[in-house]
Amino acid sequence: MKGVRVGICGCGTVGTGVARLLTENRELIESRLGVRLILAKVADIDTETDRGMRFESGVFVSDARAVVEDPQIDIIVEMIGGKGFAKELILNALNRGKHVVTANKALLADFGDEIFAAASGKGVDLAYEASVGGCMPIIKTLRESLVGNRIRSMTGILNGTCNYILSRITEAGVDFQTALAEAQRCGYAEADPTLDVEGFDTAHKLAIINALAYGMRINLPDIYVEGISKITPLDIALAREFGYTIKLLAISKDRGDSVEARVHPTMITLSNPLSNVSANLNAITVAGDAVGDMMLYGFGAGMMPTASAVVGDIVDIARNMVSNSAGRVPLLAYQEKSLRPLPVMPMDQIVTNYYIRFAALDRPGVLSKISGILGDLSISIKSVHQKGRRSETAVPVVMLTHTAKEADVKSAISRICELDIIRDAPTLIRMEDANGDDPDMDIS
After folding, report:
1. In terms of DSSP bridges, do strands 281-288 and 292-299 run parallel, antiparallel, or are they unpaired?
2. What is the 3-state secondary structure (H, E, C) of 31-93?
3. 10-residue averages of pLDDT along the chain (444 residues)
4. Phi and psi (nearest 5°) for 431?
């Protein structure tokens, strides 16, 4: 084999990083692969922007369809993003018998079943390591390294924008809007940050790794999603006082006949390794029946970290081509016939610990009224904290619960909100890795 020819569709930040690695580290890659990766074509509608590198004559073009339809190109790298044109290009490439690499988690989360079926039907490889966690090799870990394990759970910080914002609120005491503006100035957040800060980007990633971990069909619509926009410096300060920090987590647990899958702000103990993951870094812990607990950590976005994962996928496919072994590893870790429509547990059935902060008038009997309603729904109070005592002024009343069912907690909050002593909507934050020892009870 003289070489493997690669075509890149989309030369934005990550696409440029991929082109740079394939060019600047060409000899290093060839020494490890055994054949040359040839950057045959790079397509982008923007032909004017200076990308900080020079392409050989005829390599840079404006027509992505022409790249896909070029019979001499072996591997198509989709770096366009979105779900319309990108989907068209990927399906066109697969139907032409070309291998595909993509980092498009939103596309795979929404249309993965169709795309994976197209790749399987043509007997070609589809690689997508960079779609989850940037340079963290979570896809390869689940598909290959942990193939002998039953995955019990996964807990991850999978969005650098949210992690940066929460880190800034924690470290500097600024509010959400200020931290978001800082993230945008640093290039960590988009002009429209909705997908990130409301948790949808994290949910896309969780839907993909759930399929890999449990042999289930991709099931994005049933994942519970809640973002970080309502988290305040007060809640973060109180969490710290109780020995916790707040992170946006993707949480996944094997429940036998169902999977627990949810994305929301979560209080975790300061002893949890994820509590030390700051700024725009990502991390994920995986629990397997053979390996126990393990953690991956690294940059979840950015030009070169993400490009590194993409190039790793290109090399994996090229190795398969050299050995005539396309499809060696199942696309979703399990053989197609073994994939099953495993349901996601309804959020109302989730059982965990809760932090609930009320703004209540400082009057006698307030705590007994609130705790009475919680008790009626069998919600056991672990500790109660009242901040400040100012007559006729609403003060923060914080309750930490023992494990309780989500549906019961929501019902209790609804009833408590009807009390004339409550001001403003309460804040509810779910807790993981709750401290085992009960602090002194204070419900006076």
Report:
1. antiparallel
2. HHHCCCEEEEEEECCCCCCCCCCCCCCCCEECCHHHHHHCCCCCEEEECCCCCCHHHHHHHHH
3. 93 97 97 97 95 93 97 98 97 98 98 96 97 96 98 98 96 95 93 96 98 96 97 96 97 96 98 96 98 96 95 97 93 94 96 96 89 95 81 84 97 95 93 57 34
4. -125, 140
Residue 349 is given by DSSP the state: G
Catalytic residues: 205
Give CA–CA dist 291/37, Å, rounded: 35
Task: Give the H/E segment covering residue 162.
Answer: helix 160-172
Contact 356, 427 (CB under 8 A): yes
- Which residues face 355 on adjacent strands? 400, 429
What is the DSSP-derived secondary structure letter of residue 340? B
Tokens of 206: 């969780």
pTM (predicted TM-score): 0.94
Taking a C-beta distance cutoff of 8 angstroms, is the pair 332, 116 a contact? yes
Length of the chain counted residue by residue: 444
Burial class of residue 407 (count of CB atoms within 10 Å of its CB; 0-12, 13-18, 19+): middle
**Pair type for strands 4-9 and 37-43:** parallel
**Nearest-10 Cα torsion for 21, 25, 26, 30:** -120
What domains does the chain contain, in order, with CATH numbers? 4-135+303-338 (3.40.50.720), 144-297 (3.30.360.10), 347-431 (3.30.70.260)
Helix (H) or strand (E) run with residue 353 in it: strand 351-361
Using an 8 Å Cβ cutoff, are 169 and 236 in contact? yes
In the chain, the amino acid numbered 258 is S
123: left (phi over 0), alpha (psi -120 to 50) or beta: left
Nearest in space to 267 (alpha carbons), one of 428, 411, 443: 428
Which tokens in the block code for residue 375?
Answer: 């008790």
Spatial neighbors of 143 by CB under 8 A, at least 6 apart, are 212, 329, 330, 333
**Amino acid, single-letter form, for residue 397:** V
Helix (H) or strand (E) holding 156: strand 151-157
